[in-house]
Each structure stands twice: as C-alpha cells, then as structure tokens.
Amino acid sequence: MHDYLLYQFNITSRTALHYNAIIFSTNLLWNYDMRLELYIFINLNNLFYPNYKMEKISLQ
C-alpha cells in the first residue's frame, strides 16, 4: 500500500481569481526532482499571487 498525498493549492490573486493545482505523489515518485519542481511552483505563484494557502490532505 502506498501513501497518497493530495496537495491542493488555492491561489487567490488581487482580482479575486482562483487557480487550482493538484499534485499526486507516492513514496516511489516523491523524489528530489518533484520536490524541486514543487518548490519552484510555490515560489513562482508566490511571486505573482502573494495571497495563497496550502492544504495537505492525507488519503488512505
């Protein structure tokens, strides 16, 4: 059994437009490259859309 994680990014811009991005990962796929891609994703969205919140949902 793999431990699935659902990362949902609710990004709100100054014009109150909502953007969603969902990333699925397992223990085998969650390597350095995906962490780096997630880091770049968060920083780029933080640059253009400063107001956001990250919710981490654990699925069984």
Order of strands in the sheet with the most strands? 2-1-3
Give the total of beta strands: 3
Poorly predicted runs are: 1-29
Shape: flat
Report the C-alpha radius of gyration, rounded: 13 Å
Task: Give a nutshell description of this structure.
The protein has 60 residues and is of the alpha+beta class.
Characteristics:
three-stranded antiparallel β-sheet; 43% strand; disordered N terminus
What does this protein structure show overall?
- This protein has about 60 residues and is an alpha+beta fold.
- It has one domain.
- The chain contains one helix and three strands.
- A hairpin with a 5-residue loop joins β1 and β2.
- The N terminus is likely disordered.
Strand and helix layout:
Layout: E1 4-12, E2 18-25, H1 32-48, E3 51-59
Antiparallel strand pairs: 1-2, 1-3
